[in-house]
Amino acid sequence: MDRRKSLKAIALGTLSTGILLDACKEADKKTTADTAPAAIGLGPDRMEEEKAYLVKLNAEKFFNDHELATITILGDIIIPKDEVSGSASDAKVTDFIEFIVKDMPEHQIPMRGGLRWLDLQCLKQFEKAFIDCSETQRIAMVDQIAYPAKAKPEMAQGVSFFNLVRDLVCTGFYTSEIGVKDIGYQGNKPNQYNGIPDDVLKQYKLAYTEKELKECISFNV
Amino acid sequence: MGDLQIKKQPTNYDVVIVGSGAGGGMAAYVLANAGLKVCLLEAGPIFDPAKNSSQLKNPWDSPRRGASTKHRPFGDFDASYWGWEIDGEPYTKEEGTQWDWWRARMLGGRTNHWGRISLRFGPKDFKRKSIDGLGDDWPIGYEDIKPYYDKIDQLIGVFGTNEGLENDPDGYFLPPPRPRLHELMIKNGATSSGVKVIPSRLSILTKKINDSRGACFFCAQCNRSCQVYGDFSSSSVLVKPAIATGNVEVVPNAMAREVMTDKEGKATGVAYINKIDNLEYQVNGKVVILAASACETSRIMLNSKSARHPNGLANSSDVVGRYLHDSTGADLGGVLPTLMGRKRYNEDGVGGMHIYSPWWLDNKKLDFPRGYHIEYWGGMSQPSYGFGMGMQDMNGKYLVNGKQKEAGGYGASLKEDQRFFYGASVGMAGRGEAIAYRTNYCEIDPNVVDKYGIPVLKFNVKWSDHEIKQAKHMKETFKEIMHNMGAIVTWGGDDGPENNYGLHSPGKIIHEAGTARMGNDPKNSALNKWNQAHDCKNLFVVDGAAFVSQADKNITWTILALSMRASEYIIDQLKKQNI
Fold first, then answer.
1. Domain assignment of residue A168, yes or no
2. How far is A166 from chain B (nearest CA, A)?
């Protein structure tokens, strides 16, 4: 039985609501690479105070165009396209970062100041802002701040900044549709949980005890 | 505001209940099914998991990818409205003391997002003073409450196994889910240190129990509340069927101000402000039940002063607000190298651990008086805000697919690292019993009111050496289990006396109890053994406030059992015209 059919079987067999059928319809839909922040009303449940707060946040703009362009280039250096998945910009990570610094104001000064620090370093070393540097120059700059243990002491502020950007880019990417698929998370769908697959038990030389097999719920799938 | 007036509800109810969580929901359910007319006041809006749950949303459905806000401290998908702070509703603390107060404002309260850990207290848990000389014994024993635990297991549904343990009683259990991979490894690691590991006991329906609720479909998201009512929330499992009897009127957004009393000191009803129209209301009932959460209930009692109750309602004993205590808590986590680079499959399971460790030692042989249980987590969970962060602390330390790398980095190599480390985390948390002290309390702050003009609580709570020593023991145990498993501790492992061994500040575990405790002696307890106020026969308290002590067990199952027991007593006493 394929997955969609088995989901329908679960739904019809055990439940009285439409939720699982909706989930099946969802699975039938062609997925798109769209990872834009959910609009109000389409996202999670919201109480009135949360709706008002989101309206306020969405009306604000924090980064200027130069800063956004810098973040996008940094994002694609940190998470480039590879044989498994797309890049940070494919996953619209810059949009996420623009939102999250408004939502978490503690990121605002480190991001704004760090971006300026980066431009000033590039200006000193290459006489250009980061985005105007050649690809080779950008990588030369990033290599000075991307490895905390071997970075020169005078680069320490740059290391802190890059750690923050790496964190935000990674979290933005791996919580996008592209990123979740890349990392291989297979849950968040209705199923009948049957424990650890046999081949995995074998790989780790583990087995369920007779007591567990007798007492625990199991399903014929 | 020249037209300020109080609107009096014309109906005279049999019972007015304040609060719709576990205690209030159960009271409404039992009383309404017995044919009594009930008014249920709730300080937050209506919430129905079938309509409001964020279950099965993907991380990208949230613009903050599930991160927390002050509105949702446990994350954007979590089903608790508000938490540590509420706009316009402050609380204060005595200098040098700590208390964090969680308040869920919604129909069903905290039961919409809770961990569903559903443990019975054992025989010893009601008689701790007789065992170690600390605190007080309850006026009831396990035999008094057992029939109610039995009924609740079957009415609500809980999975687990009968293990024949002396102080972790057997019950009516649905089959538990099989352990996950990291849980089998934890079990082996813990067992070799003598720590008992058994299937967890969670109120989640691994099998369908009736036609009004669906069975669990294993999405691991109980904290978002369940659209098919496959787990226990008061909103879906108690209040909804209570409303269906036609005997309950729910008043949402009703913030209780005080309990009204007559000249004889009997309760006549409840005064509240409606948060939507901002008008003042009064509703009358033959019986008043408080179930607003331990602290909020004591706040209402202390704010309900009258000639007959000069020290606050039913507080001639001066215990209301006192004996406030929370579970202890300390956590630790790390990575399990054998799980790095693991095979992918769906291991969501239920919304919580499939195994746990009940308290396994004898305190007579230890330097602290009360026990704790251990909760476990780990594995391949749904990514959310925070996922993939801190890679510079990981990828230089462990070989990635056999290669030594420089910490930090970027690019295709970083993507390889993220895939390699995913699903290798593991962690554990101790949740233990604190001693309830008279000197740990909340009181009315004489100087501060909330935006409705209601005087607020001021907290004054400190841990004692007993709790700190217990946390030290937790951390030592956790490190040993991690070591046995071959896991590496990455956080929570370097605690010492300077930070109480990582013991969370009181209130943080969100199990507050004890602020209107029951007892046989009206001089040192607020309630009798039926949750009935000594000083006010038609006032009952059915939330955690009634607890004398709270065991090393999460308190919800006992709140439910006591509330059911008190409600049956109310029905009986009304019939006999004793109240």
1. yes
2. 7
> pLDDT by residue (tens digit) across B32-84?
999 999 999 999 999 999 999 999 999 999 999 999 999 999 999 999 999 99
- CB-CB under 8 Å, B65 with A17: no
3-state secondary structure B468-509: HHHHHHHHHHHHHHHHHHCCEEEECCCCCHHHHHHCCCCCCC
CA distances from B73 to B70, B222, B508 (A): 5, 16, 12
Residues of A in contact with B81 (CB under 8 A): 47
In a domain, A37, yes or no: no
B540 CB neighbour count, 10 Å cutoff: 30
ipTM field:
0.95
Distance CA(B338)–CA(A48), nearest Å, equals 46
Q: Look at chain A and report how many structural domains it folds into.
A: 2
Residue B108 in domain: yes
Same domain, A118 and A52: yes
Q: Is the pLDDT of residue B355 over 70?
A: yes
Structural domain for A143, as ranges: 48-183
Asked if residue A100 belongs to a domain, the reply is yes
Does the residue A40 lie in any domain?
Answer: no
Q: What percent of chain B has pLDDT over 70?
A: 99
C-alpha distances (whole Å) from B175 to each of A78, A136, A194 are 46, 60, 12
Largest interatomic CA distance in chain A: 72
The angle subtended at Cα B468 by Cα B464 and Cα B470, nearest 5°, is 115
The CATH number covering residue B573 comes to 3.50.50.60
Instruction: Tally the domains of chain B.
Output: 1
Nearest partner of B294 among B496, B492, B556, judged by Cα: B556
* Residues recorded for chain B: 579
Residues A108 and A168 in one domain: yes
- What residues in B contact A185, CB-CB < 8 Å? 344, 380-383, 422
